[in-house]
Predict the 3D structure of the following.
Amino acid sequence: MKTAVIFLLAATVALFLWGAGMQFQRNRDMTRTDQSAYMDYAKKSLTVPFGFVPSRNYMPLYPAVMSWFYREADSDAEYFERGKLVNIGIALLTLALFYGVLLRNNHRWDATVAVSVAALSMAVFKAPCFQPEMLFFGISFLMFVAQLHLILRPSWQAAAIAGILSGFAYLTKGSVPPMIALTILCLVGRSVENLLRRRASRTGLNPATVRPGLGKAPWVAAIVFSAALLITVSPFLRASKQMYGRWICENNAYFFWCDSWTECQALMASVGQEQGLYRTPSSELPGPITYWRTHSLGDAGARIAEGCRRLYQQHIQWGYGYAKFIMVYAVCLAFIAYQRRKDVRTWLAGDGHKWAALYSCGLFAGFLLLCTWYTAIDNSRRFTLVLFYPALYLSVKGLTAAVNADVEWNLFGSKLKASAVSSIVLLLLLQYVIFEFFYRVQFMDGTY
């Protein structure tokens, strides 16, 4: 098995570098999909304090990192080429971090197959782009793991780590507040549940429960998590307050309630572009109240239905190839979970497990719903791909639990070991490499 792991990793690295080279040559238009905007932001980051670049369309962490690689003598073309090389390095680093996390308490072969899928069906396309996605995918994945661990085993130390990582994720891309809110809600839910259990134990309805120490109380963890988050993002928030009089300046909060990108552009033109947007009273801008005044439930349902169709097209019909692997993992694990549903119910009864399951299900369902709604404004794949690493991580965790329990499952009349799932995925990956990979990396646009 060790030889197979080494061979698969070596083949994956070789194919990734070749594919990234093909995408590097294909990505020649720096004006495509915000790349030139991030270049300009990175240059401005050299001359102003962190967070004080006036634009709030883009978050400051990625431009700050890329500013380290800018030279005053660089032309735009030279800086663009260097930036793409740096981003390939960032992609390799995030894949290494992803693999390292997968190796903790999981089987090496399952982790190796999963990281190969991540590298060849997604990361290779996003790597040679002057965009923050690969950095964001890496940080947001660490944030996801830290938040999940915090919900399972609350402590002030875990809360501080999760809060800091959530802050860094927010400073990279502004799409993490739903994940932050969901984490706090789950911690509050655990606190309420513990309180109800203690009250029931006093009345003799339930056995007495052991009260955790203050440092491990979920409500304390929620406070520490929020404090660590706010401290991490405070330089950026203070800069927004000084420049615009608001702590939070986020144009997507208003774009979200528009019906099209054309409407967003008209909004920006009417208020004097970005700086005018943040100085306009919120009551005069698009929001949930104004939306429901002018739209019906039928309008919202039609928008969601159209969004589902667009997500299907972007990720399954026209995607890089990653969707099929997630579907195979999901179907196989669903078969196993159904056939071992008693074991699943026993696991859910464990301390904090149902809250971890609620967090995971809420994250995927909620984020997909938000992306479905937002496709009316921008139908880019990069918004939804933030879920790719967490989906693979949960798949490997589920496989590890099934393999450790020596689970056998029936697939169309055939009895298989749980370890066979990675073999099925590997066969699919081999088919993908032979028949799809070489064409896709040469002709598909990885910036979108």
